[in-house]
Amino acid sequence: MTDLKKTITKGAFGTVAAGAMALATASPAMAQDRHRDRGIDAGDVIAGAVIIGGIAALAGAFDNNNRRDRNYRDRNYRGDRAYNSNPQRAIERCVRTAERQARRFGGWRYADVTQIRDVDRTRYGFRVQGRMQVQGSSNYRGSNSDRGRFTCYVENGNNPQVDFRGIRGLR
Questions:
Q1: How far apart are CA 20 and CA 34, in angstroms?
Q2: Cα(146)–Cα(136) distance, integer angstroms
């Protein structure tokens, strides 16, 4: 329900409640002698205070604490939890990190993730497993390319941790 609808609903309900209370207190007064004006007495003051108190109580009961709701929503959907709730984002981060680390630490000129084999939710985030191919290393004689597997953990919004298997120069 939008804020405008909530406001209109609250206002309509408050108006109906105030009218019902005013009618309930005015009925006994109308039954008294109409030609006699006695002024305002203690009963009128008490009745007015009860009406105003009732309106205030209704307004307070239906007033949502939007600040509290917003803080709860922000706390649950920002920072670490945003990373832990989106497997697609975890996959993207793992692919970028695995390719970057293979080039940086293995001395490979090209590193490409060729397949994502499995994505599992862990207690603190995601585990992503896949295959990759690397090429163009001047460190190894003979074959200038290699293939292997990697496992990547994205936990608590931290940088992904990547373990390589089967690729020369990467452990």
A1: 22
A2: 9
* Beta bridge pairs of residue 118: 129
Q: Which tokens go with 64? A: 């949502």
Which tens digits make up the pLDDT trace of 85-135?
Answer: 789 999 999 999 999 999 998 888 899 999 999 999 999 899 999 999 999
CA distances from 85 to 72, 90, 112, 114, 122 (A): 16, 9, 26, 24, 11
Contact 148, 170 (CB under 8 A): yes
Q: Contact 132/152 with Cβ under 8 angstroms?
A: no
Q: What is the pLDDT of residues 19-29, one digit of tens each?
A: 666 656 555 55
Q: What is the distance between the alpha carbons of residues 68 and 65, in angstroms, rounded to a whole number? A: 5
pTM, two decimal places: 0.51
Question: d(Cα 3, Cα 68) in Å, to the nearest integer?
Answer: 15
Query: For residues 141, 143, 147 and 153, what is the CA-based torsion angle, rounded to 10 degrees?
Result: 20
Strand 125-135's sheet: what is its strand order?
110-121, 125-135, 145-155, 161-165
